[in-house]
Amino acid sequence: SLLFQRRDYLRGDIALARAIELDDRPLPYQLLNARRKLMRGELQQVEHIIEKLKQQDPTNVYLLTLQADLMVTQGRYDQAEALLRQALVVRETFSLRFSLARVLYLQRQYSRALSYTEDLLKDSPTHWESVYLQAMTLLQLDQTDQALKLSEDFLAREESQGLAHRLVADIKRYRGQEQAAQEILVRGLERYPRQFYLIEALSASYLVTRQYKEAKVILENALKADSPFQSVFLDRLATVYRQLNDQVAYQRTLRQFQQETNVHEPTQTPHLNYSCLHLVFLPAARQKSQHLHGSEVAAIGANSDLCTQQLRSRERNGSSNFVKTYGA
């Protein structure tokens, strides 16, 4: 679980597989395995595991949280809220309170969600997920200055592993401050060069400002490594080559993009992964007219995304395929 919390998913998966191979009976192993399946979208398998574990310990708080997280993934927010409130009667924990705050947010009960996040941050001022949720809630309440200050305070801290840079940049992009956002993202990549969520945001911003040469460099380098953004990066790189009138590279990259999307589901921005023990879902930035982001849910812990959908219409004006849909 520590490896997953550090976003080291490869070694975490290896360690988890080894632990289960030695003994698959301990409940923590089974819960962790279920969360990884939830991260990969294997919802039927997660449902099966939950039903099996409920026979062993139906009031287990972590199991109830997992079930609520599954409901959130399926868009069953009201049922998730009811389940979380039941779990809080059994045992009040920080993670349950946070999960409830997130569900309230997803139901657009922003004032109630804010009251929960404020209490959470009183108990744990450096809990990054709570900071993120509160910042997003403040944005929904049009308190942009407060959201920005809260996020900027975490730029120098390690808890977010570069995701504070993404959040600050998204807020600045929301304000139309593309150059300032790019500076933040570049600084973040200097500290976290393999943080693909920073690369995703920076490449999107470069396309908006028509800095195609800069976008070409960052996308070509990003595609040298495996990432959950392969389709997104290929799509954008094809756009860049077309804008630079490199038809050979454009056609080659377009074929790669088509092959990638034939193998996988239609292009969908992956979600930010924060922790594995407590899956949480957060929305990304939405268009102002829709109160910040088009597709509602992203996930922390098994899938969470702070993307920049509020710029979608402007991005479409400068690209061909570009990214299709965001969220879960």
Q: In words, what does this structure look like?
A:
With 328 residues, the chain is mostly helical. It has 17 helices and two strands. It has helices at residues 2-5, 9-22, 27-39, 43-56, 61-73, 77-90, 94-106, 110-123, 128-140, 144-152, 163-174, 178-191, 196-208, 212-222, 230-243, 247-263, 312-317, and strands spanning 280-282, 298-300. A two-stranded antiparallel ribbon has the order 1-2. The two termini are 24 Å apart.
Question: How many beta-strand runs?
Answer: 2
Number of helices: 17
**Main beta sheet, described?**
2 strands, antiparallel
**Helix/strand/pairing class, anyone?**
mainly alpha
What is the percentage of strand-forming residues? under 5%
The low-confidence parts are: 265-328
Percent range for helical residues?
A: 55-70%
The strand order across the widest sheet is 1-2
Shape estimate: globular
Task: Tell me the Rg in angstroms.
Answer: 20 Å
Q: Output the helix-strand order.
A: HHHHHHHHHHHHHHHHEEH
**Average pLDDT over all residues:** 77
Report the span from N to C terminus.
24 Å
What keyword list fits this structure?
globular, 2% strand, single chain, two-stranded antiparallel sheet, 328 residues, mainly alpha
